[in-house]
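Lecture notes, part 5. Sequence design as translation. It can be helpful to think of inverse folding as translation between two languages: the language of shapes and the language of residues. The source text, in C-alpha cells, appears below.
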C-alpha cells in the first residue's frame, strides 16, 4: 500500500466498516508504525482490497482486511490472506491472530478455510455496537490441510 492508494482504500474502508479508519490512521500504519505492513489487491490497476497487519517477533496480528463491495466473492480476500500466510510460513513465523465479529459469517468462513480457530472472546470489543470480538488464531509452524487445499492464489 502506498499513500497514493489511500483514496481507493478509504472508499473500501468506509463501505465496509461502521467505524472506518481515517486517512491519518492508514498513513500512521504505513509511515510510522515500524511493526505494521499493509498490502493492496488490484484488479485492472484499481485497488479492490487491502490487508493490514502487525508483525511482532514471530507472530502476525491482522488488524484490517476488506474488499470493495462490488468485488466481493471473487477471491480477493482469499488471495490477500493466502499470500500473507504463505510469506509468513516461508519466513518461519509461528502464529497469526485476529479479531472478528461473531456476526461476520463471511469473514469467519474465510478464516476457517485457512485453519483459524476461535481461542477467546473480547467482551464489548466493538465500541460502535458493543459486540464482542472472537479472537481467532492459526498456527503457522504446522501444515494446515484447509489452507493447503485453498489453492495457489494469484498474486495481488
Amino acid at each position: 500500500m502506498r499513500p497514493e492508494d489511500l483514496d481507493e482504500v478509504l472508499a473500501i474502508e468506509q463501505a465496509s466498516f461502521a467505524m472506518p479508519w481515517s486517512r491519518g490512521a492508514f498513513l500512521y500504519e504505513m509511515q510510522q508504525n515500524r511493526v505494521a505492513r499493509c498490502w493492496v489487491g488490484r484488479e485492472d490497476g484499481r485497488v479492490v482490497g487491502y490487508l493490514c497487519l502487525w508483525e511482532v517477533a514471530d507472530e502476525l496480528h491482522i488488524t484490517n482486511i476488506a474488499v470493495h463491495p462490488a468485488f466481493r466473492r471473487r477471491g480477493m480476500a482469499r488471495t490477500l490472506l493466502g499470500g500473507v500466510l504463505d510469506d509468513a510460513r516461508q519466513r518461519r513465523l509461528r502464529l497469526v491472530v485476529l479479531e472478528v465479529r461473531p456476526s461476520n459469517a463471511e469473514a469467519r468462513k474465510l478464516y476457517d478455510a485457512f485453519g483459524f480457530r476461535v481461542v477467546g472472546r473480547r467482551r464489548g470489543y466493538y465500541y460502535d455496537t458493543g459486540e464482542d470480538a472472537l479472537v481467532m488464531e492459526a498456527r503457522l509452524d504446522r501444515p494446515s490441510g484447509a489452507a493447503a487445499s485453498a489453492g495457489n492464489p494469484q498474486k495481488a
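The translated text above is only one of many valid answers, since several sequences can fold into similar shapes. The chain is about 30% helix and 35% strand.
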